[in-house]
Structures are given as structure tokens and as C-alpha cells.
Structures
1.
Amino acid sequence: MSALLGALAQFEPVEQPQLFAARQLQALSLGFHIIIVCFAITFPAMTMFAEWRWLRTGDRLYRTIAHRWSRIMVVLFAVGAVSGTILSFEFGILWPEFMATFGDVFGVSFALEGYAFFIEAIFIAIYLYGWDRLPPKVHFLTGIPVVIGGTASAYFVIAVNGWMNEPVGFTIDANGEVTDINTWAVLTGNSFMWHELAHMLLAGVMVAGFLLGTVYAWCWLKGARTRYHRTAATIALSFATIATPLQLIAGDAAGQYIAANQPVKLAAAEALEETTANAPFSLGGIVVDGELEYAIEIPDLLSLLAFRNPNATVQGLDSVPPEDQPPVNVVHLAFDTMVMIGTALAGLALWWGLAWWRRKQPPQSRWFWRFAVAAGPASVVALIAGWIVTEVGRQPWIVYEVMRTEDAVTAADGIGVLYAVMVVVYALLGTATLFVLARLARRPLPGQSPGGEDDPAGLVAASASSPGAASPSSVGAS
Amino acid sequence: MSVAEACAVVLFTGISAYALFGGADFGVGFWDLFAGDARKGAEQRAFIERAMGPVWEANHVWLIFALVILWTCFPEVFPAVMSTLWIPLSFAIVGIMLRGSAYAFRKEISGLEWKRRFGAVFALSSVLTPFFFGAVAGAIASGRVPLGNAAGDPWASWINPTSMVGGTLAVAVCAFMGALFLAHDADSFGTHHLAEQFRSRALGTAVVTGLIAALGAVVLVADEDGWVFGSEPSGSFVDGLTGRAVPLLVLSAVAGVATIVLVWRRRYSPARLAGGAAVLAVIWGWAFGQYPDMLPGVVTIEDAAGVNSTLVGTLVSVGVGAVLLVPALTWLYVLMQRGVFVAPVEGEDLSAVEQAMGGAADRTDEATSHDR
């Protein structure tokens, strides 16, 4: 991630120092938050799935998984809450002109997001503190508002991001003033958000599933293959496996939509300098003096993907003046990274799915588990890369074809100092989060603790012989 | 009441809720900071964790609520405030980040050393954050925030007498409410020796808060007349404060005295209500003091308001939100007040709370064995 952000920094022309600092700070803050958000959306669902299995089967193994996960969930929720709060300050501190001009156009969406987040915060507290204190079924049900709240939050926030890409619900009069504001249009009238929402929700499932999978794959390679580890890995990787092929479909839909509605972004993503019929799909390469060099080109594929027609004409960057073009190399690199990681993850998901389909157990090859260790961090890189595609690909506009980012930025001097401070704060926060999570993960399982409880479910007994624990059909039912 | 004024009422309601619930939370952190060394303070700290555990996150959503209402309904005021006051707000956001995460980390981590490190961060940022928020409130109230993109003085806007009064008063109010809240909870959980400790703190901070408020009033007047350092304020805040807001200030003083009497007599439940009333009266005194202005001497509520359809939309969304949130919040607080979350639990791998809640004894043990 930092490498990608570094690349972003290199390619950006520096016009105003505070614009540079403001963009870097905003990128850092959003890039941090978006990773945590994946867990806010998905983790409650996975935890509830484990709890539901417990309620259905009475197998306390599932309860242990759910309970341990719920504590991780709460730590991540706290980090997400603070990193999200910071964002609402930064909107005003960094982009006052944007907020002053459009605050009342998209504001209601954020108000609704506030309530969704509130619901999430209330019920996550009840869920965590309610273990053993509420009747089991009631406790399970208190998880549902958490999932709904998280999903709804994503919808409201992405509605605003979709609106920044496809601004609706206002007109600009002769004096340049924003008038005829229809505040609900942000939520209902912009069709940009739907593919973004699907793409983001699925990304959330993939990141949370693969990252958890990384932890259990690591344990697997270290020889920890108890029923506990196996079941937890199965839930996490199965969630990710179901989401991955759907993500390819959602990504394809996004590409088609962008091709028709924001062609410059697609042109930047594919480093397509000139408007071309039979446009090739370019992998890799770098744009030097307006020419894409060293790229692997697959003839006609971009036209085919974008318009379902190999002869279709795809708009190039030259369809807009140079000052309206996004920084092509950043977007192209990010896009390729996302596509390649996504494809690799689809391969891993296929491997996992085939193993379960044919043998009803996880793949035994050490290579699978090595790849699974890498899959979590890779999915995070893909997430950040995808987000760079949509955000940097929209540049130089903060509100597409309406307001430029450089016209939105604060006039205050010294934002660079804030940026430097926040780099340190985020580094500390990220390190501390990982540290605490690692400590939580190392807590002994119930059966392992000295003088611990009984181990009726064989939680820690290695058991290739108890295949009933998590059948693929039950996982698939999620 | 116009639609714009209704939105201003919603805004100040959000600020009030944040001041009450978030303020008590900050105050609890204040007492965590001054609970003494790891060994002496162990019992108080464990109780503090237990008392605020389930609600601390919900308490801080009010801040986001107030910000969103501000930028949606008064779109030019929000960026004006944020861009001019970006320095104190930066301190505040760093404080928020460190505080919230350190609190969660401390709760989940085991081992005294790390609990102490995270605890120190949590407690220190609990004191700094309200100070900077108070300074921001003072900057706004004294009319030092003009409209426009970073149009105000980045330093003098918040380093001035009124802001310093605001910051100090905010910390004092938080400490007072935190002590009150803890005394009440300790009493209702039957830990009377803790209740006594927090009772004396509540009494002490109530007196200090009252003194700061009285002294502060003098400073505000002096500041408005330009007697002291700092840029000339443009505000009509003090005029309003000594005019139409007087009944509220009187109410605040009466409620403050009543709180002291009630705490003295160990009547914690009514004391909590009276203390809350005293704080609310100050917040609404500020609101009425600067009425009809949104930024005193700069722009009125009516002129600052966004378009009507958005204002109406916001009010509708607040109604919808209330329908969803009020039952949920009520349930959370009822569960807490009934002690559901602190009931002893049977069964294996005692839950997250156990460590935090039953922590007093363990913690003292740990302290004995590991502490220098």
C-alpha cells in the first residue's frame, strides 16, 4: 500500500504545496479507513454465521470461534470508528470549498450514514457485552442490526462517492451558484453508485475473508491443524471464495459502466492515449511522452470487454484536453495491480472450491496454504489499487466535470505539518492494531488453558477424522 | 420557528448530547489519568473501564451527528470553522484517534505493562481533546471565525481569552460529569468506598467548575471590550449572554448548586439530573447568547442556512433516525442500568468483559507482582 501511495506521490505534479499535502493526507486517511471498513461489513456476518452454526448444532466449537472473533471485531470497530470520525473533520479542514459549495447537496446522505453507524455502535456493544448475558437466540439476533448498519453505512458513503463521479441533483446558474438542489437525488438518482457498491461490498468480503484466511493458513503451515483452526479457516476462506467470482462479474459490470459514462477513467486505467477502434487490452508498461511503452497488448480485448464488441471504438485520453486528464501511469499501474491480483485470487478460490467439491476437505498441498498466506495482504493491495483507480481516475475533478480538486482545497498554510503528524499517528495506530490483534490471536483456546474447561467438542484435538464439523454444503448455504 | 432555526436546534441538540455523554466519557478518562499509580489506581481504573465499557462508542457518534448536521444545513459555516480553526481541530482529531483506539486496545489486551501504556495514552488524550473543542467553541462564540476559506487568523482565532475560558471550562465540566457519573454508578453497583472517592472528586470539581465559570464570565466581558490580548472579537455573544441568555445562566448556577447539595447528601440519581441540567443550560446559554447569529457578528442562522429542500430533508432524516435510534439506545441504557452487562457469567472462556470487569482483583495482583 505504501509503495502504491508512494507511486502516487511521484507522479503527481506539485502545483500548490497544500494541495499536495491535502491529497496525500486524504489518501492516507481513506486508505487506512477503507481496510478497516471491510471488517466492519463482513466480520459481523462471519461471526454470526459461526454463532448460527452453534445454535443449530450445539457444537461449542462454533461458539468459541464466534466469541473469539467478536473480540477482534470490536477492536477493529473501534479503530474504524475513530478513523471514520477523522474523515468528517478532514472534509472541512482540507476541502472547504467543496463542502461550502456542495455540503447541502450530499449532506443528507451522510446524516443517514450517521444513523446507520449509530445503530451499528449500539448493537455491537450489546453483542459483545451480551455474550452469556442475553438468551442465546436474542444474542444472535442483536448481531443482525450490526450487519445491516454496516451495509447501510457503505451504501450511504458510496452514494456520495458515486455522486462525485456522476453529480446529479443540482444545476449551476449563470453566476456559477449551485441551485435547484434535490438532496434525495444523491441517494436515488445517480446510477454510478450501484456498481461501486457491489464492487466494494464484495471487496469487503474478500479482504476480511482472505486476511483471516492468512492467519489460519499461517497456523496450518506451522502445524496447527486442529478442528478449531480448520473450521475457522473454512468459514473465512469460504466467504472469500464465494465473493471472488462474483467480484469478477461486478468488476466487469463496473468496466462497462465506466466505458459508457466516464470514458476518461477507463482510458487512464488502460493507458489508452488515442481514441481507437479494436482497442487492445494493455497489461503493464509505462506511458512516456504520450506513448505506452513495454506493455503486453491483447488485440481487441478492451473493445470487447467494454462494449461486448471487438470492433467498438473506445475513447482515449485525447478525447479531453491534457489539463482534464488524470495522471495516467498511477491509474494504469493501480488498475493492472487490481486485475492481476483479482485474477490470482479467483484461481485460489477455484482451488479451494474444487478441493471441497471433490474431497470435502481443505486442500492438502502446502502450496495452497502458502498462497493463502499471501492472499490476505494481496487482497488489501488490490482493494487500495481499485480505490486508486476510481479516485485518481476521477482527477483533476473532485466533482466530475464540475469542480476541480485544486479549487476545493484549503487556503491554510501548514497542512504539510498536519500530514507529517498524521503519518506518524497512522503508523502508530496501524502498528498498535496489529500488535493487539496478534496478542488476541495468541490467547489459549479453552481446552489449552491450564485448569481449563472440558474439551467436549475436541476443540484442540487434531481431527482429520471428524469431517462433520463444517460441511461444504453448510458453508455454501451462507 | 423557521426551518433554519429548527435545524439550528437540532445542531445544538447534537452538541448537547455530545457534551453530556461524550463529556462524561472524557471526564471518566480524566479520572483515569489521576487515579494514581498502577497499584493504587488499579481498582478505580478497573471500575472506570467497567462503567463506560458498553456505551463509549455510542457516546461519540454524537460528534459525527453534530458535524454532519452543521455541514448539511449550514454548508458555508462548517468549512469556515474547519479551515480557520484547523490547528486546534487537528489536535482534537489526533486526540480522538489516540483516545478511542487506546481505550479499546487497553480493554482487550492482557498484561499490566501494555494496559498501562495504552491507558496513559487514553487518559492524556481524554484531557487534551475537550480542551481543544472548548477552545474552538470559544473562537466561534467570540466571533473570530469569518466566512470563507481559511479566512480567519490561524492562531489568534483560538489563542485568545474566550477560547482559553472555553477550553478550561470544557475540561472542568467533563471532569465534573465524569466524577458524578462514576459516583452514581459505583453507588448503584454497591461499591460504596469507590462511590465515596468519586463523590469527593465530584464535589471538588463542581466547585472548581463554578469558579472557572464565574471568572470566565469576567474574562469574556474583558475580551469583548478588547482589554486583553488577542485579536478583536467581532461577536455579539456577550451582549446576548448578558441579555436573553441570563435566565439560562441563572438556571445553570441554581442547578450547579443543587448538584453540589445532592452529591453532598449522596443522592446521586437526582444529582446526575441536576448536573446534566447545569451543563445543558450553559450550552443553550451559548446558543441563545449568539442568537440570531450562527457565527456571531458574521452571519445569521437564516443567512447561513442551505437551501430549504435540504433543510427539510435533514429534519425528515432526523425524524427517521430518531424512530430507529431511540428504542435501540433506550434498550442499551436499560440493559446497562439493570446491570445485565455486569452480571457474573458461567461457562467457559469468560467473555471479553470479564477481564475488564472482574479486573480489579487480578489487576492488583498483577500490580503487586510486576510493578516496580
2.
Amino acid sequence: MIRIDFNKLRFLVVDDNNHMRKIVKTLLHGFGAREVYEAEDGASGLEAFTANAPDIVILDWVMPILDGIELTQMIRGSEGADAYTPIIMLTGYSEKKRVLQARDHGITEFLCKPISAKSLYQRIVNVVVNPRPFIKTKTFFGPDRRRNALLHYKGPERRLDEASEVYEQTSLYEKIKEPA
Amino acid sequence: MSKYQNPDEAQVIQKEGYQIINPPKKLQKKANIRILGDKSLDLAAVDRAEAGLSKLAGDFNTWMNEEVDRLNYCYKKYIKMATLENRKGLYASAQDVRGHASTYGFPVAGRLAFSLCSALEESEALVRHKDVLDRLVDAITAIVRQNARDEHPIAKELEKELLAYKRRKLADAGA
């Protein structure tokens, strides 16, 4: 069983729907979180992000002033370690093009509404236990969009026209797993 | 470069034209990860969260009615003036109903809201004639106002008929 100390983590929930914020906060408190900050739009979300330095951000897509994608871009563009903060997008938009758009703007995890305790818990544990490396190119900065290395892939490197190169990374699970 | 990463610093691996960056491990340190046996979830934590959520259930009816009020407000606004902005507002409120209805116990209303979103997004013919939009908004409203929760048989029958009607209209429009 994977256990993490939710009571040590600081969350920021950004959603313009106050009922949804209440639901997410209730779930986080149920997991054991104590520090949960909230904001009702992207602009106040950015302010809360700067003021509270959350460990994990959970945000909606469609919001007034700054939407979830714009807020993500601002977080990813910030200086220092804050730029690597895991961002979970919680939204009613479930179409593939939306998921890809979110991924291409630096979202770490995508969670479609309706929300459930289990799905939210899984996403949070995943961003903590299996952090992905970040990729920085001229046009992109965010979590590696390839979740799995294709060990037998023989085609051209998609980031560059160079020979395929696999960067092997031991998962955190493997690193910390205690021998049975 | 050292094989081992200082957990407080990002590790940058320079490639031709891009960088691979392993972020600092501060979150992993703070979270005190423990693996006890297999990789299964801590279901006790999930159960506690669900128990907390069930305490809010008494408010779900009111919240769902508020969502439907907003949907009707946006729809009337759009019917009065069919601008792109009003259409976006209607779409956003339908998306909210779609996203929240199941959580509040109205899955059929959620599916009809999904159908409304797809009509607004994909079919100009349906948007122009408004007939299907009208019926979808009315059906969502009726289901919520009549408190037809979960997979209520009358709500499901309404859904079946309405989706068949939408398909016929789409076929008529040649979509």
C-alpha cells in the first residue's frame, strides 16, 4: 500500500464554482490534508499561489479573468522551484483535443468531472510518487509528455531529427520500495 | 554529471536543442512516502473522504437547482440575442451541469447536458433551429426540478426519446 502524509502537504484549489471548491476541500481534508487554500478565479489563484507556495495545485479550466491554462502558463513561467509545482486540472471537458491541449500547456494530471474520492486520490499520489521529469525546449516547458519510454521504438526522434535516444529513469517507487 | 541527484536542486541534462530537468524532490521528502507491500491505494483515506462528501449530500439538491437556474438564464440570454459570447456562456453553463450533475446525484441530467454541449459545439444546424436545444434544456430542468435522481426510469425514458429526436434532426440536417 502506498501512503503519503497529506497533513504535510499544502494544496491550492482554484475554481470559480464555490460548491466544487467545497467538495474538493472536503475530499482533501478526508485524505488528511490540513492546509488547503482556495481561489475563485485565475487571477486570485495566481496571487494565492505566490503568497502560499502550495505543493500541489488543483484547478478548473474555464474561469474568469485568467483561465486554468493561462494560470498554468504563468506558474510554469515563474522563477525557481515553483515552476515545477504539480498541477492537476479538474474539468468537465473530457474531449481528447482538450486533454492534449492541457498537456501541451504544462498540466501534470488531467481529471474529468464528475469527481470521485478515488480518482482524486490516485492523481495526487501519482504526482507525488511518480514525478515526471520536465522538458524545456524553445516552445515548451512542462512535465514530459511521454509517460512511458518506448524501449523498442526505432523511428526518428520526435523532438529533434537525431537518432532515437532513451533516457532511462528509475521510478521513485523502485527507489524506495523496501524488499519484501 | 553525478548519477545521484541532490534532492534540493533540479538536475539538468542538456540535450541538443532541449533540456531534461529532474525537479527538486522537496515534495517527495515532505510527503514521507511509504510503500507497504504492493502499490495499492490507501482505501481508508478514500473512505474517509467519501464519508466527508456524504455529509455535504444534503446540499446537493440546492446546488443542482442553482446550476439549472444558471443554465436557464444563459439559455434565455442566448435565445434573446444569439451572439458568440452568449453562446459561449451557454456552453460553459452546460459544461458545469455536465461536470457536476453526477456528483449531485443526477447522472441523466449530466448526460443530457453533454448532449447539449456537443450540439452547441458540433452542429450549426441544431444551433440555428434551436428546437433540440430547447428540448434538452427543458428536459434537464424537469429532471432536476422533479428530483428524478440517479438512473430514474422516467428520466432515462426521456433521455432515450430526446437523443433519438436529436439524431433524427441531425440526419434531416444532413450532418
